[in-house]
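Example 4.3 (complexes with small molecules)
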Amino acid sequence: MAKIIAGIASSHVPAIGAAIDNGRTEEPYWKRVFAGFERSKRWMAETRPDVVFAIYNDHASAFSVEVIPTFALGCAAEFPPADEGWGPRPVPVVKGHPELASHIAQSVILDEFDLTICNKMEVDHGLTVPLNLMFGSPREWPCPVIPLAVNVVQFPPPTGHRCFMLGRAIAKAIESYPEDLRVVMFGTGGMSHQISGPRAGLINSKFDKAFLDNLTKDPDKLVHMPHLEYMREAGAEGVELVMWLVMRGALHRKVKEVYRFYTVPASNTAVGHIILDNTVPQRSTARKTAKRPVAKVKRAAARARIDRVRS
Ligand SMILES: [Fe+2]
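Answer. The structure with fe (ii) ion bound is encoded below.
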């Protein structure tokens, strides 16, 4: 059966893509950013997943204001890089996994999450920049990628709770796929940033670092955070962080933080990145059920003592 072996979160700052495409990665400003992903690339080269499931948002590239799906699942065989105004990025075409994607669509929609199915879709920097950060700049991406585009551009975006629960449904779908595939989940976007208005350039490192802490140890603290809190604390575009909760919802409760990187700024954005190992042993249900009879016996004994006192 397929299984999710890890979750990764990463910002998808467009200027990072431009730095790669224009050969500026060795400039001191950008070297600081790319150095933080060197260990991640080694981890990815060693891990060699069979499939990446990448949660990202489209920035008016594949979708315009005319059509705004809340959750759009890419079921196509390939996803070309989109022209974002200065020509498509010089990156490989993203190859999909139509069989697994269709299986996920079937399972998740019957689980009452109404996905939009995309059999043709171009992908922008939201997807391709994290692929660069994790895989470098190969001639071909080393594994198929299933894109899930989440609307965080036009209000109302989905709630963090909805995203988290969708992640759970996606995990259930992946883990019921009969082929032995090792899947890595990507959550992209964030961290704190605001690109327009009087607060343009806002970065809140305290909020970002607490978000990273909770993402690993206590995601329940993040799940019910309202959009207004994201906007107040992390800027208007900081609401992209709800996409990380799809990734986290697909992981087990207990995960191991393998690596974390945080730096500011990149362009006008805080860059956050984390790798979570999803193969950590979980508390077995056998232990939980073994405790129940003992508790029951204790409660029954206590009730018996009370009855004896009363009588
Ligand atoms: Fe974005």
